[in-house]
Design brief:
This protein is of the alpha+beta class. It has 14 helices and 12 strands. The strands form 2 sheets. The protein has a 6-stranded mixed beta barrel with strand order 2-3-10-5-7-6. It has a two-stranded antiparallel sheet with strand order 8-9. It is elongated, with a radius of gyration of 33 Å. It starts with a helix and ends with a helix.
């Protein structure tokens, strides 16, 4: 057996004996580092949960979709600049279809919020969208009952509607909605289908929606509202190329002068992701910083208590040195003692931190999703903190003069 291995085993035995002999000190040190790890993991868990939740929400939009609008999804600058842009026209929609080599589905989209009712049941602020048949491909919805809007519905301005999951549950809790009549701002629409559940994105409930034929929407609610253009392209890999091509097509269709900026906006899900990262990046940094400071305080507590331990065991160290113990053995003993306390505190802190994150996710809208790698990193980081803050006490113990240490009272 090598000398180093003997030193490690002996150091571990003495370190564990010392921790057992000083239970109160061990508990206090463990609590200090545990609070730091618990705080850090709880914060990281909540942030990771938010990121995971947002990624899932963003996926519901569709990675291969583009949305051409007067307004960008994230408005920077003067709102009136976008407000004064020219509206799109239906011939432009067909010209985009004909000229783009990437478009697989295209639909004009116009919308408003409205009260929707059926008998005694009523829902307020429901999103009512006018679309065409191809919007089903673009949106990623699935029809769970009945059918979707057809081109015949649109061309003949039929008063039919396809409703989202929350509208179906709210207005028809006990019967099938298909074939029933709903009223949108008092106007009757026959339900011909229901949609699959998609959830919320940025607090926008995608399931609280009623879809009607595009031309029916304008016939029922007036043509004052401008529409946007929703597009699905061949794959997510060509979204950027499709966007560049659409910029050229739109500038030609709208006769935008070469020296003028685009008078339209092409939006894609990635833009929302970038905005989200900008909004949460600083918050994430501050939150992690608070957790690290708490962990640092725990590390300083370990160092102070280890220094007290060195002072109390000065005579013991002197005896061991006089009997031939090497400096390396003394250093290993105190480093293992510090890292053991940190690892135990880190483990307990991990359990508490995960529990806190779970409690927060249960009682608030904030999600929590701690990854296994984060848990391992938390315990490992706590042990590293113990090693780092145990270096000075360990070195101080190892460098004690044996003669002076034996005289210490």
């Amino acid at each position: 057996m090598s000398v180093f291995r003997i030193d490690v085993l002996e150091g571990a035995r003495i370190a564990l004996f010392s921790l057992k002999a000083n239970r109160m000190r061990t508990v206090l040190t463990t609590v200090g580092i545990g609070i730091g790890v618990a705080t850090l993991l709880a914060i990281i868990g909540i942030v990771q949960g938010l990121n995971s939740s947002f990624d899932k929400q963003l996926a519901t939009i569709g990675a291969n979709t583009l949305h051409i609008s007067k307004w960008p999804w994230v408005i920077r600058g003067d709102w009136w600049t976008y407000r004064n842009r020219k509206n799109f026209t239906l011939p432009q929609v067909e010209q985009i279809r004909a000229q783009s080599s990437y478009v697989t589905a295209i639909s004009p989209v116009v919308g408003r919020a409205a009260d929707v009712s059926h008998g005694e049941e009523q829902l307020a602020t429901v999103g009512v969208n006018g679309v065409t048949s191809e919007y089903l491909i673009i949106s990623g919805f699935e029809v769970t009952q009945g059918r979707f809007i057809t081109e015949a519905d649109n061309e003949t301005t039929r008063p039919v509607a396809v409703i989202g999951a929350d509208v179906a549950a709210g207005l028809f809790p006990n019967v099938s909605p298909v074939g029933q009549t709903i009223r949108v701002e008092g106007r009757p629409f026959q339900v011909v289908g229901t949609l699959s559940r998609k959830g919320k994105i940025l607090d926008n409930n995608q399931d609280l929606v009623v879809m009607v034929p595009f031309k029916t929407f304008y016939a029922a609610f007036g043509k004052q509202r401008p529409f946007s253009i929703a597009i699905a392209v061949t794959s997510a890999d060509v979204v950027k190329q499709a966007e560049d091509q659409l910029v050229g097509i739109m500038r030609r269709l709208r006769a935008t002068p070469a020296d003028q900026p685009d008078d339209f906006s092409i939006n894609r899900p990635e833009m929302l992701a970038n905005t989200y990262q900008q909004l949460t990046g600083a918050l994430y940094g501050v939150a992690v910083g608070v957790g690290l400071i708490t962990l640092l305080v725990g590390g300083i507590g370990i160092m102070n208590i280890m220094l007290v331990s060195v002072r109390e065991r000065t005579r013991e160290i002197g005896i061991r040195r006089a009997l031939g113990a090497r400096k390396q053995t003394i250093v290993l003993q105190f480093l293992m003692e510090a890292s053991a306390v940190s690892a135990v505190g880190g483990t307990l802190g991990t359990v508490v931190g995960l529990g806190l994150a779970k409690v927060v996710s249960l009682i608030t809208p904030l999600a929590a999703d701690v990854q296994l790698l984060t848990v391992v990193a938390g315990v490992g980081f706590a042990a590293v903190v113990g090693l780092l803050f145990g270096i000075w006490p360990a070195a101080r113990a190892a460098n004690l003069d044996p003669v002076e240490a034996l005289r210490y009272e």
